[in-house]
Amino acid sequence: MPWPDVTVVDACVRRDGRGGSPTAVIDDDPAATDADRRTVAAAAGTSHAAFLGPERAPDGGWPVRFFTATTELPGCGHGTVAAQALRLTRTALGELNDRQHTGGRTFDTAAIRRPTGIEVWFDQGLVALRHPAPDERAAIVAALGLTADDPHPTDAARIAAPGAPRMLVPVHDRSALLRVRPHLGRLTAACRRYGLLGCFVYVPPEGGRPGAARMFAPAIGVDEDVANANSTGCLAAHLLDTAGAQTVTIEVEQGDTLGRPSSVLASARRGPTGITTRVGGLSVVRDGP
Description:
Layout: E1 7-13, E2 21-27, H1 34-37, H2 40-44, E3 48-52, E4 62-67, E5 72-73, H3 77-89, E6 95-102, E7 105-114, E8 117-126, E9 128-130, H4 134-144, E10 158-161, E11 166-170, H5 174-179, H6 184-194, E12 199-203, E13 211-217, E14 222-225, H7 229-243, E15 247-254, E16 262-271, E17 274-285
Helix pairs in contact: 4-6
């Protein structure tokens, strides 16, 4: 079916408004099938598409669904940033505080007009952390093609799940990050075997310098993501947990290898029920509906 009025939003741009992850955002059509929705991202030239529901869910949240060319996602961080940025542009407000319903969960969102775009934050919720089993880690590392010199000297891989689990894999420095050339077929098979969304390879923030990361998720049709906001929140939770801190705030640069420099912000807090996170980014809404 044809989809009129698709707006592309560059989500999680750098502070000067450059780059970002192009995301298609569109008002959902109740008559559409999921097969129809899977066609939108490719037709718009984006990796993901966000579908805005026509009315609030019973719990008061605005429904938003996310699709790649191959599947529906239970959540999408940069897609949420894009969706809420477009929702704000449809108002005359300077700031929009609301609730979003995605993947069976309703959470707080905030969108604020800034000189270089729209800043969006959302509550990611609880992030569960565990250490990967040896065979699990070995399969992912082998599929990534990491050498003996690439692992980080003090940090270690973790499985992080704000819903869908993904593996966080630290490397020594930005040069090692740029050298990563995964075997996508092997990585797809390993992720499906262990039930992982994908693999977030990163260099931790250090000395006031932002961290850097690359997200590979070929099992869901995204060979490499320009910006993965949910994984950045997972990284904040991991760094807080390993440091034994009560709060941590990070910035992680992404997208440089794809020519789309991006930046994601995240904060993590330890509470009575576990580690919760907030994730944010700046977006630029392109001309459109």
